[in-house]
Each structure stands twice: as C-alpha cells, then as structure tokens.
Amino acid sequence: MLFNSYTFVLLYLPATLLGCFALSRWAGRKQVVAFLVAASLVFYGWWNPGHVALLGASLVANYALGRTIARSAPAARRAWLTAGVVANLALIAYYKYAGFFAEISNALAGTSWEFGAIALPLGISFFTFQQVAYLVDSYRGEIHDEQHGFLEYCLFVTFFPQFIAGPIVHHADVLGQFRDKRVFAPRADDLSVGASYFFIGLFKKVALADNVAVFARPTFTYALNGGQPTFAEAWIAALSYSLQLYLDFSGYSDMAIGAARMFGVKLPMNFDSPYKALDIADFWRRWHMTLSRFLRDYVYIPLGGNRRGEGRRLVNLMATMAIGGLWHGAGWTFVAWGCLHGAYLVLHQLWGRACEALPLPRAPRWLANALSWSVTMLAVVIAWVFFRAESFDAAWRMLAAMFGATGISLESSVGRTIPALWILGLGVLCVAFPNTAEFFVRENPIVDSERLSKRRPLLRALVWRPNVAWAVALAALATFSVLSLHQASEFLYFRF
C-alpha cells in the first residue's frame, strides 16, 4: 500500500485515524497501542502477507534480547549484544545481500553458489537498523524496563508512517510520546498540521518528482543498454535524477511526518534543504539525517571516531560511508557511491586543515559561498550517477558524456527547453525556498524543532497558519495531488 494511492489516502488512513480516536475515547491506552500495531501490520502485509511472520519473529526476538541485555551482568551483556547484532545482520544479509556475496565468492574463489530469486521484505534495511540501535542502547544502559512494554516496542518499530522508508526512529524519539495523554487523541492542531504536511509531501511526489523523472529514466536506460548519451542528454538526466531523488524521498518523509502528526506523534526531521549545503559535511548534516545519525552513533563512533588520531579518523570516515553505500543496495555501484562520499569527506577534512595552516587569501564571502556551493553540488551530482546507474559501464558512459569526452553535443532525445525549465524551476525551489519544516516553524512539527528556532524568521506570509489563505492553497494542492494518484509510482527508497 503506497502513501500515494487512493487506498491509503481515502480508506486506510481515515479508517485508522477513526479507529484510534474511538479507542482513545472509549478504551485504554493499551488498546490504542494494540490497535495501531495491528493496523501497521496490515499496512506492511499489504505487499506480502508472508513477510509479516518474519517481522513478528524479529520483533519478539529483538525485544527479548533487549530485555536480556539490559538485565545481564556486564560480561554477559556483551555476548548477548554480539549475538543480537550478528542475528540481525545475518537476516538482512540473506534477504538483501546473499546474491551479491555469492557473486563475489564465485568470482574470487571459483565457487558456484546460486541463491535464486529472494523476495526482499520491504523496509528490512530500516527496521533492522532501528532494532540494532535498540540493542546497542540496551547494552549502554539507556533503556529501562519501566519505559515501555512489548506492545509499545512493537509500535516503535512498526508504526506505519515511518515503517517502510523512514525516518529511522530512535527509541528516545517516540517511546516517551506513546505514554503522553495528548497523543492518539483527536486534536484540531495535530490534524490540521499533519494533513497540511502530508499533502505538501504528496504534491512533491506526484507533481514534482514523478514528472521530472521522465527526463532521467530514458537516458540512464539507454546508457545501461550500451548507448552513448550526448553531453546534453547526460547532464539533463543527471540533474533531473538529482532533483527527482530528493523530492521523492523528502516527499515521503514529509508524508510520514504528517501522517504521524495526525495521531499526535512527532517524528524526527529527515531532510533540511540538503541542496543548500556549502560543503560536503554540511550536505550530510542535511541529507537523510536519521541515517547520518545512525551511521555516526552506531558505526563511526564504535569504530573509534576521532579518538585514535587523524589517520584513523579518516579511515573511519571512509569505512562508515562505504557501509552507508552498501546499506542502500547490494551492488558495486552503491559501494562506489558510498566510497566516493567518503573520499569527499576526507578531502574536505584535509582541505580544512590546509586552510588553517596556510596563509591563503580570503575571497569575498559571497564569492566563497558561491564557489563552495558549486563544488559541493557538482560532487553530489557526480556521485548520484553511480547511485542511479545499474552498472559501472552505464555510469562511465554517463560521466564521459557529462565531461565532454565524447564531444559537446547539445542534441537531446528528450528535448532541451522543457527539461531545462523543469530543472531550473525545481532547482530554485530546492535552493532558494524554505523547506517544509520551516513553513511550520510555529507548530513545532518535528521531534527536534529547536533546530528551526535558530533560523532567520520567514516572512510572515510564508509561515503556516490555520487561516483561509493557507486552507485554500493547500486544498488546491491536495485536490491536484489526489487527482494525480491514478498514475502513482513507487517511492525510490522502497528498493533499499
């Protein structure tokens, strides 16, 4: 069941809201939580009912492990944690990486392993990382028995707004909210803010991301099949995909935040205008923020972080980003994308050290910012080519065309004027306009709303308010989006 489907918008979401609110009025909180867990399992099982049993086993095992880890002696805690992490990684390794690892083994060791087609459970990358974090936090003594029971744990993992493609929720983000009396009860501000947030995200997906995708897909497919794109085709495709990916995934995250807020639950922010970043470190503070937090807290820091010298810190950066690339998909192009971003971060650190050590001339601030932004966006777009391409050959063909190795031809099979207008318009939207959370800054829309309070205030007319002007604008946006659902497509991050 897709967020951008008639089934979800017109049936599932209203029915779940009504059921939750009725139980919050006539029953107890335990019944509300149980209802939402059941509703979330229905949502998950819509694609493949058989995977619900796998999910149920994972929930029971990880909850039991978390409790065991929290109650055990220090020496035993480490053993239980190791067993839990290995079991979770083994599960994701089988479903997501078995074929990839078999391919590597066959190439290096001459084996002949074959796993056949393995149906990938939706959201496995997200709920596995979420539960691994829970086990690690249990080991660190950050989770206690009195904070939640099994049903609340299940809702923490399976809450349908964030279950399939994030945000990756930390236990501290939501478990306390589940016991708040104001949560799960009908409140006008939650419904109005949540619905507005949801339909802005839906508009991003169906009106913007899906429409700019048509300029990227044919060229990447052509390169995959051995064709050589022209200079114009390659740049149109690379820029279109860069915009499609951001609008698609940030649109999903907006819908997740909005749907959760209708129930009174606040989720963490996942995107903070990443294409406004002035350097690659800033980009990763803004892009897929909950994944960046996970990689920092549960990969980079356990590897040693910056505690073992400069050389080891740079190695840890590379390793963390390579793991982040592999998390996205079982393929060398994803590993290359992660390693490329690791190299970017290492170069950024080295450049920063050089600037501190050398008496370099200072450029005017506006010029320095423009140059920094341009270099950062060029690096990001180049990396997206590997992320999108389905083979290295296709990626090299795209990059060769983008950098003029095959000539500077402005001919394009998808035209030039219309794609250029889309790219320019969406680029301005992503770089110059406030993001969704900033529009709702007065409503504390997310878990970490404090980060928004430090921003320069928006013009009064741009700040969301429950007034006629905003109601009319959002009604028009919602109507257009709902009428476009007949051609709904999957979200890109469903593949990961």
Give the total of beta strands.
Answer: 0
Structural class: mainly alpha
Counting structural domains, the number is 2
Query: pLDDT average, as an integer?
Result: 89
- Largest beta sheet, briefly? none
Stretches with pLDDT under 50, minimum 5 residues = none
Helical content class: 55-70%
Shape field: globular
Order of helices and strands: HHHHHHHHHHHHHHHHHHHHH
Number of helices: 21
Q: Ends: how far apart? A: 17 Å
Percentage of residues in strands: under 5%
Which oligomerization state do the chains in this entry correspond to?
single chain
Radius of gyration: 23 Å
Short description:
By secondary structure, the protein is mainly alpha-helical. The chain contains 21 helices and no strands.
